[in-house]
Amino acid sequence: MNSIRSVLEGVGSTLILFMRSISHVGTLSRQKSRFIEQCYVIGYTTLPIVGILSFFVGSVLALQSGYSMQDFGTQQFIGALVGLSMVRELGPMMVAILLAGRVGSAITAELASMKVNQEVDALVTMNIPPAKILVLPRLAAVLMMMPVLTVISNLVGWFGGALVCKYTGFISVEPQQYFQALRHVVKFKDVIDGICKAEIFGFIVVLVCSSIGLSTRGGPREIGAAVTKAVVSSLVLILVLDYFVTKLLLAILS
Predict the structure, then answer these.
(1) Residue 233 contacts by C-beta under 8 Å, 6 or more apart in sequence?
(2) 3-class DSSP state for residue 158?
(3) Residue ranges of domains in the chain
(4) Are the C-beta atoms of residues 100 and 228 closer than 8 Å to each other?
(5) CB of 21 within 8 A of CB of 131?
(6) Beta strands in 164-254 (DSSP E)
(7) Exposed site from 24, 51, 131, 231, fewest CB < 10 Å?
(8) Residue 75 contacts by C-beta under 8 Å, 6 or more apart in sequence?
(9) What is the dihedral of CA 61, 88, 157, 163, to 10 degrees?
(10) 68-72, 115-119, 127-131, 215-219: the lowest-pLDDT one
């Protein structure tokens, strides 16, 4: 019962924080510096690890599929497999997981420290809503940067798969044939579906991590526990939402 109660309380506090944040959306134009700073943290500083991970995921995907598909004589479809896998699932999923582990944990730690050190209470005393200056710029920044990170992840993953096809001896697929199969199968709507997934995942990660950080009480030990809780909750939500969002998108397309 206690665990169910804590989950319901967490959902309730997250929804309340969401409503408070969007109620101040009109003030976002006056917070350009905070918005740009969060775009830099969420986008630019996350980009290198997104590129490295995407490159090797695309490479491994092409390597594994090429090794298996050579027995059936279907190696010419490696580009299609890598292209669809990156666009529909792996690209948005990897970016969201990296966001939870790298940015989400930092958001929770920062806000939890402010809460424990009573900085958040000081903002409330000065009649400054914490959701306005601490959460809203982050939500806006993640909505801005997730499509960029996802598209770059897709492109780098495709490039990694093409290099494997070019320089791995047992995969007799030229890059031209690889990208021709990719272009034939991957449609613009597939890219949009992946971006929609990334937007939902990123928004939920930032919202959940902010909510957990702002609800932290205690000392340094509680800050560490809050970071762990935020990252684990974000990863679970990403996987759960991936199923339902995918099912919804397939239902819309059918």
Answers:
(1) 10, 208, 212
(2) helix
(3) 11-248
(4) no
(5) yes
(6) none
(7) 24
(8) 66, 69, 171, 172, 173
(9) 60
(10) 68-72
